[in-house]
Specification:
alpha+beta, globular, 3-stranded antiparallel beta sheet
């Protein structure tokens, strides 16, 4: 929090709901366990979810989701969160927040999907469908530009420290990163991207992908960031299915692998002692990406 405020807990959510949505007052509030760093999530009754930004960098996400998710949802082949209420600052809490219709399912980190082939096709189609929605008025995504803008010079230090701990081949990682830096950048019109298609932001039922959640990084730009599931989730056998369904060109795919490399190295380094879930996903991303770079 940028300034002192109340704890984001069930008591706060109960007060906010009672003050701003009295029709829902009295519904049970339960915190949803999550490794996410931007928002706190609570289940409200059986049919609703409350999402509250908890970090300074997540300010504005609620307003963006309120504005754009109703516009995008009808065009997408998988369910996404639909806002049903817009909360405003109150009860000592200083940010805009949201109430969404609850989507059933388990996040796919805690309950890994068993039908990866089906998931690869469905998630690839999701990204392809998102990209063709008119993006003319959309805001820029924080991950819609070159990956160098995101890693902001932190990657060499991450390689150095991880290599010192025996976790990364520094020579391979450095050579791979240098090849990423040589790639031509996106020169097309900006398209919609989810920006954060990690296992914890996907829901599954009966071993299959059922919904896409957490649109905090939603925006427009280069679609390369949305190919990262190829390395965070899929195998050598299912990765081509995802690529075909996503319908991206060769250079977008190469930039996506560069995203997996950079995001994996920097995120594992940053969260390895504080967030085991994100660190584990990041480790898989950079491991899978480096295995491919080693064959090039």
């Amino acid at each position: 929090m940028t300034s002192p405020g109340p704890a984001i807990d069930t008591a706060l959510v109960e007060r906010l709901i009672a003050a701003q949505f009295p029709d829902w007052a009295g519904l049970p509030v339960r915190e949803v366990d999550s490794a996410g760093t931007d928002n706190a999530m609570f289940r409200l009754g059986d049919e609703l979810a409350v999402r509250l930004p908890k970090a300074a960098w997540s300010e504005g996400q609620a307003e963006k989701e309120q504005r754009w998710l109703p516009h995008l949802a009808p065009h997408l082949p998988l369910p996404v969160p639909v806002p049903v209420g817009r909360g405003v600052p109150g009860e000592g809490y200083g940010r805009v927040w949201s109430v969404f219709a609850w989507l059933d399912g388990d996040d796919t980190y805690d309950a890994p999907l068993t039908d990866l082939a089906h998931t690869a096709v469905e998630l690839g189609r999701f990204g392809a469908a998102l990209r063709v929605v008119d993006a003319g008025d959309g805001p820029a995504s924080s991950r819609g530009g070159p990956v160098t803008g995101w890693e902001d010079g932190h990657l060499p230090g991450a390689v150095r420290d991880l290599a010192a701990d025996g976790l990364v081949d520094a020579e391979l990682a450095t050579a791979a990163w240098e090849s990423v830096l040589r790639l031509p950048q996106w020169d097309g019109a900006p398209v919609w991207v989810h920006g954060d298609l990690l296992p914890g932001n996907l829901l599954g039922r009966d071993g299959r992908l059922s919904a896409v959640i957490d649109f905090g990084a939603l925006g427009t730009g280069d679609p390369a960031c949305d190919t990262m599931p190829a390395w965070t989730m899929f195998t050598a056998d299912t990765r081509p299915l995802f690529r075909e369904a996503a319908r991206v060109d060769d250079m977008t795919w190469e930039r996506g692998r560069g995203w997996a490399l950079a995001w994996g190295l920097v995120t594992e380094h940053y969260y390895r002692d504080t967030n085991r879930v994100l660190a584990a996903v990041a480790r898989r991303a950079r491991t899978e990406a480096l295995a491919e770079y080693a064959k090039l």
